[in-house]
């Protein structure tokens, strides 16, 4: 549990650093303290929106046991779902941000070439980070599944061995050999047939 929280915090920190860094890349590095704080806030909002929403979607898709019946299908469902989510969240966050901070309307925002470039870059970067995270999650989860499968197969082999061992009961074998020994002197053909049946 503690390890999981630490990994989540680390991943979230990396995502926030990337999103804040990208914000400064697009907005520029102003010496004005208010602009710096606004850029950091914007980066945190966009980063958290993408990271938390994508994580929730991925966990809800991959919590089903049927994932292992057709993992590629679920992998594609996750990618498509999160791509749509990232696109919608980027559009919504940018619209609300620029509307409340600068009074920019929806049409003004999405007809400006720089805004389209910035939104496209955010979408591509968000999708790229998500694909890396999904691949790691998927590989780790698949590894756990195959490990569990190997354990089940090992238990099944042990069960089969124990069952076979129990079928070869020493008393059964002793009685069969005694019967065979008696038949050899009485009727060789019956002894031969008995030997074949016993071997089967």
Structure description:
The protein has two domains: 148 residues, no CATH class; 32 residues, no CATH class. The protein has 200 residues and is mainly alpha-helical. The two termini are 54 Å apart. The chain is rod-shaped, with a radius of gyration of 33 Å. Helix 1 packs across helix 2, helix 2 packs antiparallel against helix 3 and helix 3 runs antiparallel to helix 5. 10% of the residues are buried. 88% of the residues lie in helices and 0% in strands.
What's a quick, concise take on this entry?
With 200 residues, the protein is mainly alpha-helical. Helices cover 88% and strands 0% of the residues. It has helices spanning 2-27, 33-62, 71-102, 106-109, 113-167, 170-186, 188-199.
